[in-house]
Write a structure and sequence with these properties.
Distance between the termini: 51 Å
Number of domains: 1
Order of helices and strands: HHEHEHEEHEHEEH
Radius of gyration: 17 Å
Helix content: 25-40%
CATH superfamily: Vaccinia Virus protein VP39
Largest sheet: 7 strands, mixed
Structural class: alpha/beta
Shape: globular
Protein backbone atom coordinates (compact mmCIF):
# COMPACT_ATOMS: atom_id res chain seq x y z
CA UNK A 1 0.00 0.00 0.00
CA UNK A 2 1.57 3.25 -1.14
CA UNK A 3 -0.11 5.28 1.60
CA UNK A 4 -1.14 4.36 5.13
CA UNK A 5 -4.75 3.60 5.99
CA UNK A 6 -4.93 6.90 7.83
CA UNK A 7 -3.63 8.81 4.80
CA UNK A 8 -6.15 7.13 2.51
CA UNK A 9 -8.94 7.89 5.01
CA UNK A 10 -7.98 11.56 5.17
CA UNK A 11 -7.77 11.79 1.38
CA UNK A 12 -11.25 10.36 0.90
CA UNK A 13 -12.75 12.45 3.68
CA UNK A 14 -11.54 15.52 1.78
CA UNK A 15 -13.21 14.21 -1.40
CA UNK A 16 -16.41 12.94 0.23
CA UNK A 17 -18.73 15.85 -0.55
CA UNK A 18 -17.96 15.74 -4.27
CA UNK A 19 -17.11 12.03 -4.63
CA UNK A 20 -20.31 11.10 -6.47
CA UNK A 21 -19.88 13.85 -9.05
CA UNK A 22 -18.47 13.35 -12.55
CA UNK A 23 -17.91 9.59 -12.40
CA UNK A 24 -16.93 7.97 -15.68
CA UNK A 25 -19.38 5.65 -17.50
CA UNK A 26 -17.13 2.68 -16.79
CA UNK A 27 -17.48 3.29 -13.05
CA UNK A 28 -21.27 3.23 -13.30
CA UNK A 29 -21.17 0.11 -15.49
CA UNK A 30 -19.00 -1.58 -12.89
CA UNK A 31 -21.41 -0.63 -10.10
CA UNK A 32 -24.33 -2.07 -12.07
CA UNK A 33 -22.51 -5.36 -12.59
CA UNK A 34 -21.63 -5.64 -8.91
CA UNK A 35 -25.28 -5.09 -7.99
CA UNK A 36 -26.48 -7.61 -10.57
CA UNK A 37 -24.03 -10.31 -9.51
CA UNK A 38 -24.59 -9.80 -5.77
CA UNK A 39 -28.25 -10.72 -6.29
CA UNK A 40 -29.29 -10.91 -2.61
CA UNK A 41 -32.57 -12.29 -1.34
CA UNK A 42 -34.68 -10.90 1.52
CA UNK A 43 -33.09 -13.52 3.78
CA UNK A 44 -29.52 -12.40 3.07
CA UNK A 45 -27.19 -10.31 5.18
CA UNK A 46 -24.82 -8.44 2.88
CA UNK A 47 -21.57 -6.67 3.80
CA UNK A 48 -20.17 -3.94 1.53
CA UNK A 49 -16.50 -3.25 2.25
CA UNK A 50 -15.00 0.08 1.21
CA UNK A 51 -18.58 1.27 0.93
CA UNK A 52 -17.65 4.92 0.33
CA UNK A 53 -20.79 7.01 0.02
CA UNK A 54 -22.91 3.85 0.00
CA UNK A 55 -23.62 3.47 -3.71
CA UNK A 56 -23.56 -0.34 -3.70
CA UNK A 57 -25.01 -0.79 -0.21
CA UNK A 58 -27.99 1.46 -0.90
CA UNK A 59 -28.63 -0.03 -4.33
CA UNK A 60 -28.84 -3.52 -2.79
CA UNK A 61 -30.80 -2.58 0.32
CA UNK A 62 -34.26 -2.99 -1.28
CA UNK A 63 -33.47 -6.62 -2.18
CA UNK A 64 -31.47 -7.74 0.88
CA UNK A 65 -32.66 -8.43 4.38
CA UNK A 66 -29.88 -6.45 5.99
CA UNK A 67 -26.90 -4.49 4.63
CA UNK A 68 -23.74 -3.52 6.51
CA UNK A 69 -21.48 -0.85 4.97
CA UNK A 70 -17.92 -0.43 6.20
CA UNK A 71 -15.31 2.21 5.30
CA UNK A 72 -12.21 3.86 6.74
CA UNK A 73 -13.29 7.43 5.92
CA UNK A 74 -15.47 9.31 8.36
CA UNK A 75 -16.45 11.80 5.67
CA UNK A 76 -17.53 9.07 3.26
CA UNK A 77 -19.59 7.39 5.98
CA UNK A 78 -21.30 10.69 6.79
CA UNK A 79 -22.34 10.98 3.14
CA UNK A 80 -23.59 7.38 3.13
CA UNK A 81 -25.68 7.89 6.27
CA UNK A 82 -27.19 11.10 4.87
CA UNK A 83 -28.13 9.32 1.63
CA UNK A 84 -29.67 6.42 3.56
CA UNK A 85 -31.74 8.82 5.65
CA UNK A 86 -32.89 10.69 2.55
CA UNK A 87 -33.90 7.44 0.84
CA UNK A 88 -35.58 6.07 3.94
CA UNK A 89 -33.42 2.92 4.04
CA UNK A 90 -33.94 1.33 7.46
CA UNK A 91 -32.13 -1.96 6.86
CA UNK A 92 -28.67 -0.45 6.26
CA UNK A 93 -26.05 0.19 8.92
CA UNK A 94 -22.85 2.11 8.21
CA UNK A 95 -19.72 2.21 10.35
CA UNK A 96 -15.94 2.09 10.46
CA UNK A 97 -14.27 -1.04 9.17
CA UNK A 98 -11.25 -2.17 7.17
CA UNK A 99 -10.52 -5.03 4.81
CA UNK A 100 -8.38 -6.74 7.44
CA UNK A 101 -10.66 -5.69 10.31
CA UNK A 102 -14.17 -5.43 8.86
CA UNK A 103 -15.79 -4.96 12.26
CA UNK A 104 -18.62 -7.34 11.41
CA UNK A 105 -20.12 -9.94 13.72
CA UNK A 106 -22.65 -12.65 13.00
CA UNK A 107 -23.74 -14.33 9.81
CA UNK A 108 -22.58 -12.97 6.45
CA UNK A 109 -24.15 -14.30 3.26
CA UNK A 110 -22.69 -12.00 0.58
CA UNK A 111 -19.72 -9.61 0.48
CA UNK A 112 -19.33 -6.87 -2.09
CA UNK A 113 -16.60 -4.32 -2.70
CA UNK A 114 -16.33 -1.73 -5.43
CA UNK A 115 -13.36 0.47 -6.39
CA UNK A 116 -11.56 0.07 -3.08
CA UNK A 117 -9.28 -2.99 -2.99
CA UNK A 118 -6.87 -1.50 -5.55
CA UNK A 119 -5.60 0.87 -2.88
CA UNK A 120 -3.78 -2.10 -1.30
CA UNK A 121 -0.62 -3.78 -2.54
CA UNK A 122 -0.90 -7.39 -3.69
CA UNK A 123 0.15 -8.92 -0.36
CA UNK A 124 -2.43 -6.83 1.46
CA UNK A 125 -5.07 -7.70 -1.16
CA UNK A 126 -4.40 -11.39 -0.62
CA UNK A 127 -4.71 -10.99 3.16
CA UNK A 128 -7.92 -9.00 2.74
CA UNK A 129 -9.52 -11.66 0.54
CA UNK A 130 -8.62 -14.32 3.10
CA UNK A 131 -10.24 -12.17 5.80
CA UNK A 132 -13.36 -11.93 3.64
CA UNK A 133 -13.34 -15.72 3.20
CA UNK A 134 -13.16 -16.09 6.99
CA UNK A 135 -16.55 -14.34 7.19
CA UNK A 136 -17.85 -17.43 5.31
CA UNK A 137 -20.03 -15.69 2.71
CA UNK A 138 -21.42 -17.87 -0.04
CA UNK A 139 -20.55 -15.17 -2.59
CA UNK A 140 -17.94 -12.43 -2.97
CA UNK A 141 -18.36 -9.83 -5.72
CA UNK A 142 -15.44 -7.52 -6.45
CA UNK A 143 -15.70 -4.57 -8.80
CA UNK A 144 -12.45 -2.70 -9.09
CA UNK A 145 -9.59 -1.29 -11.04
CA UNK A 146 -7.84 -4.41 -12.37
CA UNK A 147 -5.50 -4.87 -15.29
CA UNK A 148 -6.64 -6.97 -18.25
CA UNK A 149 -3.69 -5.60 -20.23
CA UNK A 150 -0.83 -3.20 -19.69
CA UNK A 151 -2.05 -0.04 -18.01
CA UNK A 152 -2.31 3.03 -20.23
CA UNK A 153 -0.25 5.69 -18.44
CA UNK A 154 -2.07 8.42 -20.40
CA UNK A 155 -5.54 7.32 -19.29
CA UNK A 156 -5.43 5.39 -16.02
CA UNK A 157 -8.45 4.69 -13.84
CA UNK A 158 -6.29 5.16 -10.80
CA UNK A 159 -3.58 7.41 -9.41
CA UNK A 160 -0.27 5.57 -9.82
CA UNK A 161 1.34 7.53 -7.01
CA UNK A 162 -1.14 6.23 -4.42
CA UNK A 163 -2.87 3.16 -5.92
CA UNK A 164 -1.65 -0.32 -6.82
CA UNK A 165 -4.10 -2.32 -8.97
CA UNK A 166 -3.46 -6.02 -9.59
CA UNK A 167 -3.73 -8.01 -12.77
CA UNK A 168 -6.87 -10.07 -13.28
CA UNK A 169 -4.77 -13.23 -13.13
CA UNK A 170 -3.31 -12.30 -9.76
CA UNK A 171 -6.76 -11.53 -8.36
CA UNK A 172 -8.13 -14.82 -9.70
CA UNK A 173 -5.36 -16.68 -7.89
CA UNK A 174 -6.16 -14.80 -4.68
CA UNK A 175 -9.82 -15.82 -4.96
CA UNK A 176 -9.06 -19.49 -5.43
CA UNK A 177 -6.35 -19.53 -2.75
CA UNK A 178 -8.94 -18.18 -0.28
CA UNK A 179 -11.44 -20.90 -1.16
CA UNK A 180 -13.63 -19.16 -3.72
CA UNK A 181 -14.50 -20.72 -7.07
CA UNK A 182 -14.34 -17.99 -9.70
CA UNK A 183 -17.74 -18.07 -11.45
CA UNK A 184 -17.67 -14.86 -13.50
CA UNK A 185 -15.15 -12.42 -14.95
CA UNK A 186 -16.65 -9.25 -16.44
CA UNK A 187 -14.42 -6.90 -18.40
CA UNK A 188 -15.70 -3.33 -18.42
CA UNK A 189 -12.48 -1.73 -19.66
CA UNK A 190 -8.85 -2.80 -19.96
CA UNK A 191 -8.41 -1.40 -16.44
CA UNK A 192 -11.84 -2.09 -14.88
CA UNK A 193 -13.67 -5.32 -14.21
CA UNK A 194 -15.78 -7.47 -11.91
CA UNK A 195 -14.91 -10.85 -10.42
CA UNK A 196 -17.44 -13.14 -8.76
CA UNK A 197 -16.44 -15.92 -6.39
CA UNK A 198 -18.66 -18.59 -4.88
CA UNK A 199 -17.51 -20.22 -1.67
CA UNK A 200 -16.26 -23.76 -2.15
CA UNK A 201 -17.86 -26.15 0.33
CA UNK A 202 -16.32 -29.52 1.02
CA UNK A 203 -18.34 -32.55 2.09
CA UNK A 204 -16.17 -33.89 4.86
CA UNK A 205 -17.79 -37.32 4.73
CA UNK A 206 -16.79 -37.60 1.06
CA UNK A 207 -13.19 -36.57 1.75
CA UNK A 208 -12.49 -38.76 4.75
CA UNK A 209 -9.72 -41.30 4.26
CA UNK A 210 -11.47 -44.67 4.37
CA UNK A 211 -8.47 -46.73 3.39
CA UNK A 212 -7.56 -49.66 5.61
Amino acid sequence: MRKTVEEHAARFTEQAASYDDDKRPEYHACCSLVVDHADPTPKDRLVDLGTGTGAIALALAPEAGNVVGRDISEGMLEQAVAKADKQGCENVEFGEGRFREPNVEGRVDIVTSNFALHHLDDDAKRAAIHTIADLEPRRFVLGDVMLFADADPDDPFYTPAVDDPATVGALADMFTDAGFALTAVERVHEQVGVLVGERVTVDREMTEDTSL
